Fold each of these.
Amino acid sequence: MMVPDYAMIAEISLFSFGFSAAKVLSKKITSTFKLSSEQLSSQDHYDFGMRAVKTVISAAANLKRDQPDASEELICLRAIRDVNVPKFLQDDLKLFNGIVSDLFPKIKQEAIDYGLLDTGLKESCARKNLLDVEGFIGKCIQLYETTVVRHGLMLVGPTGSGKTRCYEVLQDAMTCIKGESIGGYVFEKVLTYVLNPKSITMGQLYGEFDPMTHEWTDGILSSLIRLGSSSTDTTRRWYVFDGPVDAVWIENMNTVLDDNKKLCLSSGEIIKLTDYMTMMFEVADL
């Protein structure tokens, strides 16, 4: 089987986004993932393939657009950290930091000032009678960073670990600072639609044909996504699947979660997701 040349693909992509040192940076990005795959523990949610490389490049492109005069190595380092740090376990994070510091030896990353977002998160915590501890605010910011570069993501943790509160606080904060911007990202009102896919049938989730009359009945998810897709405003919509993920119902989400961003229904209808729609999966484990 042919293995794609990740470094060359990354190099061409970086050049297309205006990076002049793309050749060196592409090798550093691919080396980071190669060393991570060899040295870090084996976890189901770790991905060091082409999808991860593409996400880092996408994050780097956003930062380059916002800060065209900033150091390209610093931009790349921040993109690698923003995309990967949220998913690593505590022990693996130390190893990852070591790998990154070896590949970017002279680059010192300064603390990022989230300003309005940080203030908004703390005010949101106060409104919800929550303590704005540093770890929780950090997780909310990591979730925000992930929503910027990915349209499909997972919140993983046992019951009571703060998964629901994390996205609720971020939603509230982003809605309150609507119209403001950080790094070229403009905050908009955020709506969440929460459903448990295991509490209903596949037909109720995606829609189904009546076996007797052959009449099509819309599902809950297809109705919600159609509503969001046809909307002309810039309101962000988060679809939260609060329940275990299994092969039966997640199968139909393949084309939604890849770069096609389309929900294909058994009626033949194809609904295209907009850039303002995000799929979140809230699960206890993988």
Amino acid sequence: MYNPDIKGFSVDTGPHTNYNISRLNVAVGGARAMDMVAQTEDLIERMQNWTNIDFDNDWKVITMFIGANDICACSNYTAAEYAAEVQEALDLMHAQIPRAFVNLAQVVQVTEINKLDGLMCDVFHYAFCECAKQEFNENWREISTQTFNYHRALEQLVESGRYDTREDFTVVIQPFFEKTYIPPNENGTGWDDSMFAPDCFHFSEYGHQVCAMSLWNNMIEPVGLKRTGWHPDDIVECPSADFEYFYTYLNSPGYQAKQPSVNDPFVEDHHEDTHRHNDQDHHEDKDHHDDQDQQDNREYPVCNEHTGALVTVIVLLVAILVATISGFIWLAKKRSAPPANSKF
């Protein structure tokens, strides 16, 4: 049941190695699926050694959100390889962590960065995820298909029932990122970038608030009826008076897991999605996203074939400019400082 007396969340910004700040938050910036086992081992050790909790008897909510950096590595890292790395970490949790509800959040649609324009956005996008940006990769639409395949791979892993063999442990897919798109701004002249930090890639404080709200709402929605995208008019929902627990694959009314295919499970085109959400969810999603689907099919402005090299030069020039300005500031301060033997 919902318990407001939550312990273990991080209390400030800082390195994950600073335990006084990070507490039980073991997330590491830039991590990929291959790092999840190490993070899981770190989490288990912290929980076992923290005197504020009873490791064996306290219930735990664990959230894993991984995959964007795997996609943005711009390699041939397949959905099967990605799911295998996630499975190894989840297997470890299943084997060693008692009384745990694990949220497995689907990877975000990284190709949405195409809606964020401007020189600095392009610089950071080239550094963080060039293959998802049309200016740098003519095959950028393949990244959307790869993201979809990652979603389906995690679904098949979890819906197999692999983690529903105990009464005190489960893993639940939370799909709120599957169809979360950047909405238009208020005057309709562009896109709302308020969810993003100045690097046009990571979430802002507001963006993190939206993610937390969407995650919470997914947790109290039955499997098969979960929202697959965030919308600006969403609010924080309350648990139903008739059911005060988090929904799982076993307690969601009317839910039946799909049987995994013996053939290659990963589809080639995300437009052929026939996943688990019911007809009502599809109709609601269609109402929200018909216009969005048309926008996704449009071509975004492309600078030219030399954009990648141009951005690299710009990054170097900016770095040189910053270093030069810093040097002048240091020199000015040194010249204005009183002599060492001055009485003033």
